[in-house]
Amino acid sequence: MLLVVGVYLVAGNLVNGASGGAKSLAKGAVPAAYQPLVQKWGNLCSAINPALLAAQLYQESGFNPKAQSPAAAQGIAQFIPGTWSTHGIDGDGDGDKDVWDPNDAIPSAAQYDCTLASYVKDVPGNPTENMLASYNAGAYAVIKYGGVPPYKETQNYVKTITTLEDSFAAPVSRVDPSKQAAGAIYYAQKKLGTPYLWGGDGTAADNGRFDCSGLTKAAYESVGIMLPRVANDQYNAGPHPARDELLPGDLVFFSDDLTNSRAIRHVGIYVGGGYMIDAPRTGAVIRFDPIDSPDYFGATRVTEDGAKALPTTV
Fold first, then answer.
1. Triad 114, 75, 45: Cα angle to 5°
2. What is the pTM of this model?
3. Rounded to the nearest 5°, which phi and psi values hold at 84?
4. Nearest to 267 by CA among 305, 225, 219
5. In what order do the strands lie in the sheet with 251-255?
6. pLDDT (tens digit, 9 = 90+) per residue, 229-246?
7. Burial 299-309 (b: 16+ CB within 10 A, else e)
8. Which of 17, 154, 192, 221 is most enclosed, with most CB atoms within 10 A?
């Protein structure tokens, strides 16, 4: 524990927060099938960027082109029929505009964002935040209040998308360490030797056993951060340090498809020296394992805001 805290404190003194500037997509954060579309159309106007567009699509559908909500929102961008009829475009030039086709829906989402931004371009404040507020509350409300209106739902929506944006953007510099990292590691250390249980959350009903994402969820819950249940959503709980920038407490992820974070199948907690604590598989126990393997996908530095921004279901 002292070693972990020492490493954490030293690292905290050396690391600076990520700076602003143009944002590119983090490795594999967007499924490979949609990455070119998000990269291209995310640069349609100055109010959006590829990471912001990716955050919206993830929040709306989890990149599911067949998603449909009880309110009849449809497709990967969750357009309701009335909005689609007005703002849907033929993004791929095949002669039709299909809300279920990401080649049309993703360009339409970007176009709609930029249209909203044009409506409120003369409103004071941050153009991107004003655009997002218009998306949630309507451009009239943004114009009326001279910026993001004083509606809790709208303010939460703006914060959610701008926070998620960071989890889809490739960091431009080293990112701040989590204040809760050492506590999460301490929790995981106490579970070393515990047998694996698929779907296990460590409850009495599970006899205190965990699977991989159940362990990471419980470890961060012990320090007041609520993560989603599954590993591929935990990936979006913060920014993504490079392999040579890992700090104790970072979540490390593994996948058979290194182009798609939605295909992540395993997660552990990095403890330094190239090792993690993880619950590997049925028949094994929670243990130390090396992270450097061909299926290493990447890492996430969990933040409180990043975890709070994640949708409860995608």
1. 15
2. 0.87
3. -65, -40
4. 219
5. 287-290, 275-278, 264-272, 251-255, 296-300
6. 999 999 999 999 999 999
7. bbbbbbebbeb
8. 154
